[in-house]
Amino acid sequence: xxxxxxxxxxxxxxxxxxxxxxxxxxxxxxxxxxxxxxxxxxxxxxxxxxxxxxxxxxxxxxxxxxxxxxxxxxxxxxxxxxxxxxxxxxxxxxxxxxxxxxxxxxxxxxxxxxxxxxxxxxxxxxxxxxxxxxxxxxxxxxxxxxxxxxxxxxxxxxxxxxxxxxxxxxxxxxxxxxxxxxxxxxxxxxxxxxxxxxxxxxxxxxxxxxxxxxxxxxxxxxxxxxxxxxxxxxxxxxxxxxxxxxxxxxxxxxxxxxxxxxxxxxxxxxxxxxxxxxxxxxxxxxxxxxxxxxxxxxxxxxxxxxxxxxxxxxxxxxxxxxxxxxxxxxxxxxxxxxxxxxxxxxxxxxxxxxxxxxxxxxxxxxxxxxxxxxxxxxxxxxxxxxxxxxxxxxxxxxxxxxxxxxxxxxxxxxxxxxxxxxxxxxxxxxxxxxxxxxxxxxxxxxxxxxxxxxx
Length: 455
Description:
The chain crosses the membrane at residues 12-33. The protein is mainly beta. The protein folds into three domains: 3-33; 47-131, Ubiquitin-like (UB roll) (Roll), CATH 3.10.20; 148-369 and 450-454, TolB, C-terminal domain (Neuraminidase, 6 Propeller). It is 9% helix and 50% strand. It has helices spanning 14-31, 39-48, 383-393, and strands spanning 3-5, 11-13, 51-58, 63-67, 73-75, 78-83, 88-95, 99-105, 109-111, 114-118, 123-131, 148-152, 158-164, 167-175, 182-188, 197-202, 208-214, 217-225, 232-238, 247-252, 258-264, 267-275, 282-288, 297-302, 308-314, 317-325, 332-338, 347-352, 359-365, 368-374, 376-377, 402-408, 417-422, 428-434, 437-445, 452-454. The strands form nine sheets. It has a five-stranded mixed β-sheet with strand order 5-6-3-11-8, with no helix packed on it. A five-stranded mixed β-sheet has the order 31-35-34-33-32, with helices on one face. A hairpin with a 2-residue loop joins strand 29 and strand 30. The longest helix is centred in the N-terminal third of the chain and has 18 residues, at 14-31. Mean pLDDT is 90; it is low at 1-18, 20-31 and 33-47.
């Protein structure tokens, strides 16, 4: 029969239905509606519209994030980008000035500052940047510039120079006539107020005493410990637990044992052995934050082989230890551990003991040497300074009379500088560093009496 009866009992003729279908197809064509056989194409086009990648910045610091493909559009600390399904994207985090990268969350895989995601669906990742707490050496007045502490061996007076580059912003006595059996061991911040304090030790009793300082004045003082036996010696200080307070690293001269006091002002809040014995050929050369985790680390060298090794520290524990280099020639001696390029990571300053005036800096990244060069004047530095540099470093000019006394960021640019003294005249001269080059220099003092020692 040429009739169709629907479920309600109405009857339609086949020719009528054919007419209706023809009209519907005409509407489909005129309005651009896809016919049923194009459904697969519609699905493909929907997939090409993309899936969303969301990047969120977190933490106390700041930085930037770039993608290997596509463009991230930012609205405050949240960025978005759209990608075709299954696109592989690599994100790169770069910390801003005064910040450091602190990690990724939500990535498929991570490698250092890289985050890799496969956009099989909408993805959200978080990048964390942390504010770097600047730790300026020997800064007595919290102006982010290192200062100089001196003591006279004849009068026993103690003086502090508050520095602004090579100029003294203020110079005053911190004390006069200190008893001869008390000696300055170091000057760093022990109570977390960002002002250097002074640690003393009694050479007869072993007692340790700390002055808490405010500029050139001691605001208070107290014993940190009494009766330390002479076989325990202070080797270095540094903030080993990241609490913005310097701690004290001791070593036993008989056993080689290394012990750390974790400090809070004049008080030892805790402490512990780092190692209970160590072979005598291994010597502690300095401390500094090599991996930018806010904890100071320990640099060691084997005096027999020249091998250089680092303990990456977490409080009193070694979280990782590794060789930096092996077989360094014995003529080369570590002179300082300090951040010379302002990346928040300690570097290593070497001097050739046979060729006085020859210096080299390793620029470090954890236990890896990422760069380095001989120390030399920066291109474009003044002719006057270049002449002074040659005078201080060339053997024919009497470079043997100059000796580096201290390092610190004297001009507040985030890069440590070098303080030198002429052993024949007492003159003090600064090199202002920019990575491995010396940008400029200047006299901090001339004719300083030779009974004054710099700490």
